[in-house]
Predict the structure.
Amino acid sequence: MKKCGKCKETLPLGAFYKNSAESDGLMTYCSACARTRNRESLARRPGYSQKYYQAHKAYYKEYSREWKRRNNERARELLKGYNHARRARLVEAPCDKTISMDILFDRDDRSCGICGNSVELQEASIDHVIPLARGGSHTWGNVQLSHLSCNLSKGARM
């Protein structure tokens, strides 16, 4: 338990953002107060973030390009997760953002949910048992590991 420096409420440690500069590793304000403080700060300087980004656009693009080059596998995994979540939002389906290929590999014991054979990371795909196009959700109860080829041949069938 920790006391928020702004609202003075005593809250569980999970209610505070991390901050390695602080002695306990957590921010002084709870996450709700920190969000409010950030919104107020941005309201005092309308357009500042956009102007800063535009002024430093080349740096951000180069940094992003370099990070993707160094972390190729992680970048591809994040993109896959983002695309699944984006598709779920488009059809207004429930979406669990904690779904990751690493955890799915362990949960499904590296075997394809469609054909039953072993799956390598390079050929892995997240299959929705009930497809998003058919009203399924992007949640742990509706996803399984599959080969990309098996998943593509399955399509939007159940």
In short: Residues 72-90 form the longest helix (19 residues).
